[in-house]
Amino acid sequence: MRRTMMAVLGALALAGCSFGTDVPVAEKAITAFHAQLDAAQFGPIYAGSGSEMKKATSEQRLTAFLGAVHRKLGLFKSGKTIGWNENLNTGGHYVAINYQAVYEHGPAAESFTYRVDDGKATLVGYNVNSDVLIVS
């Protein structure tokens, strides 16, 4: 009886979670990120990032990095989500998105991690890989 009760409670708890519903929230934040990157608003990107990002790097280092990305890749042209992962734990609710981007000077593989609270996505991680960053 107790085992059945636990299984029912577990199923009800999982039914309350709708994984994937916050992916569009994170994708909207990616659109805003690219607009800020194109406008060279690197400071505001840092200012709006989460504590996880701020613990990992300083504003000076992130703005220098984003400046190099912007300078070498050029303006953002288009992109699409190629995969995502959602994680809900005691530290919060996180959405990680793998993104295939096309910039003025070539393609890039980007990965974004957002913490989502009450429908608002806060950037906590960003990574970009592109041959353009190395050879130009």
What does this structure look like?
By secondary structure, the protein is an alpha+beta fold. Helix content is 46%, strand content 35%. The chain has helices at residues 2-15, 23-38, 42-47, 51-56, 59-73, 131-135, and strands at residues 76-89, 92-103, 106-117, 120-129. A four-stranded antiparallel beta sheet has the order 1-2-3-4. The chain is built from six helices and four strands, in the order H-H-H-H-H-E-E-E-E-H. A hairpin with a 2-residue loop joins strand 3 and strand 4 (120-129). The radius of gyration is 18 Å and the shape is globular.
Q: What number is the mean pLDDT?
A: 89
- Sketch the topology as an H/E string, one letter per element: HHHHHEEEEH
Largest sheet: 4 strands, antiparallel
Q: What coarse outline follows from CA principal-axis ratios?
A: globular
Which labels suit this protein?
single chain, 136 residues, alpha+beta, four-stranded antiparallel beta sheet, 4 strands, 46% helix, 35% strand, globular
Give a nutshell description of this structure:
The protein has 136 residues and is of the alpha+beta class. 46% of the residues lie in helices and 35% in strands.
How are the secondary structure elements laid out?
Layout: H1 2-15, H2 23-38, H3 42-47, H4 51-56, H5 59-73, E1 76-89, E2 92-103, E3 106-117, E4 120-129, H6 131-135
Antiparallel strand pairs: 1-2, 2-3, 3-4
